[in-house]
Amino acid sequence: PLMKELAEMEKVNSQLSAAVEDVTREHREKAE
Questions:
Q1: pLDDT tens, 2-32?
Q2: Residue 30: what pLDDT?
Q3: Rounded to 5 degrees, what angle do the CA atoms 3, 8, 12 make?
Q4: pLDDT value of position 13
Q5: CA atoms within 13 A on the CB side of 5
Q6: What pLDDT, on a 0 to 100 scale, did the predictor assign at position 8?
Q7: How far apart (Å, rounded) are the C-alpha atoms in residues 12 and 18?
Q8: 28/23 Cα distance (integer angstroms)
Q9: What is the pTM of this model?
Q10: Rg of the chain (C-alpha set)
Q11: Using CB atoms within 10 A of its CB, is residue 13 exposed (0-12), middle (13-18) or buried (19+)?
């Protein structure tokens, strides 16, 4: 079903965003 696919993609996207934010934060702290 399409809605289930979309929900999965949303979940993966939010996890990716959180991971990217963590990495960005770490890089920023190392740079300072």
A1: 999 999 999 999 999 999 999 999 999 999 8
A2: 94
A3: 150
A4: 98
A5: 2
A6: 98
A7: 10
A8: 9
A9: 0.65
A10: 14
A11: exposed
| CA 6/CA 12 separation, integer angstroms | 10
Tokens of 6: 């979309």
Q: Which residue, among 23, 3, 15, has the nearest Cα to 31 in the 3D structure? A: 23
User: How many CB atoms are closer than 10 A to CB 25?
Assistant: 10
Q: What is the DSSP string of 1-32?
A: -HHHHHHHHHHHHHHHHHHHHHHHHHHHHHH-
Q: Say how many residues make up the chain.
A: 32
The position carrying tokens 């079903």 is 1
